[in-house]
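Question thread 4412

I'm putting together a teaching handout and wanted feedback from people who do this every day. The idea is simple: show students a protein as raw sequence, then show them the structure tokens that encode its fold, then repeat with a second protein so they can compare. Below is the first pair exactly as I plan to print it.
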Amino acid sequence: MKFFIIGLGNPGKIYEFTRHNVGKLFVLYLGENKGFFEGEGNFFYKEMDYGFLIIPTLYMNESGIVFEDLKKNL
């Protein structure tokens, strides 16, 4: 069984190291030294042995759009 680990956060320098981006920072930590994230549009992803690491490019309150895109693309 493969898992999706989605690191929610907000784009922009203003949120970079704030509580708003803890999920995003955690996913980046999990993917550290495992190659680059791929993708364009509403999310970036990296395939791992256990599933996919997902980093949305939208604001947290727009995360539903990312989930719809994931269903279509991965």
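The second pair follows. I'd like the answer to focus on this one:
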Amino acid sequence: MRMNVQMCRVGVLAALGLSMGCATETKIVFDKSGVSATQRQQDENTCLRETIGIDPEGRLFAPFTVDRGAYEKCMQARGYAAVRR
């Protein structure tokens, strides 16, 4: 249960950080034909968790950064195409 709560916090904080960081930049949306919104969100959350700073005990480094290049590569490895808007 404790790990699930930590992972939810990581996802929420990472999504917030990405949305704040992208406010003045071109927005990148990942598209994959035939994927539900739920599956896309799960894939995005997985890639976010893989590309932010987390210590060996699973705690989020604060302030955290998202490696956008690594995030984009993670999504592309899952079959998504980056569409800039």
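Top answer:
Good format. For the second protein you could add a caption like this: The CA atoms of residues 71 and 77 lie 10 Å apart. The chain has one domain: 2-84.
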